[in-house]
Every structure is written in C-alpha cells, then in structure tokens.
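One such shown below:

_____
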Amino acid sequence: MTDVVEQSGGVARSDAGAGAGGAGPAPTDPARPGTGTDEPEAAARISAIRERIDEIDRTLIALWQERAGLSQQVGATRMASGGTRLVLSREREILERFRRELGADGTQLALLLLRAGRGPL
C-alpha cells in the first residue's frame, strides 16, 4: 500500500497489484521492496538513502508544526494587544528570503508556511 498526500491535504491510498486477478505491477522482492532494482548493492544503497530522507521528513514535519504554532502565538499576542491580524512587511520579508534561497518553489513553500501559521486570508 502506498500513501500519497494530495494537494487538498488528504491521503490517497493505492493498493497496486492487490486487486483481483493480479492486475497491476509484479510484486517486488521482499528483501528489497520498492527500490526499483534487483541489484543488491544498489538496493541497499537506495534503502539507506531513503532512511535518511524519512528522518529529514519527520524533522520537517515537526518543524512545520512548531513554526505554525509559534506564528499563531505571535498573531494572537499582537491582536490581544490591539495590533493588526497581519504584518504584511513581515510576510514580504519571509517570501523574499525563501524566494532568494529556493527560487520559485521557495515562494510557494513560504506561502504555505504563512498560511499554516495565520490561516487563509
């Protein structure tokens, strides 16, 4: 089973090859599932790299959640003291930093981060 996060935020599940009649791709070697190669050394290297990718993903998710929570605290504190809901100059600064470091994809990432912290406009 493969889980894929869709743009809507939902999770789509795919059971390739699990349908009746054996439709779908042939099963992979259980010793090297999903590496795309039958060469043992390459499969082991791919598995090791993927373990590190998974570690990074867990860290990114934890940081995303922490950042969103902190941003929500800033907004709540600002509004409780009579300030504005948003500080557009701060949002522009964040957008520019991400664009400068990561290009167009950085801008999209920054927009998602900002929305996670303040909600949609």
Summary: The first strand starts at residue 2 and ends at 5. The chain is about 60% helix and 5% strand. Residues 1-28 have pLDDT under 50 and may be disordered. The radius of gyration is 21 Å.
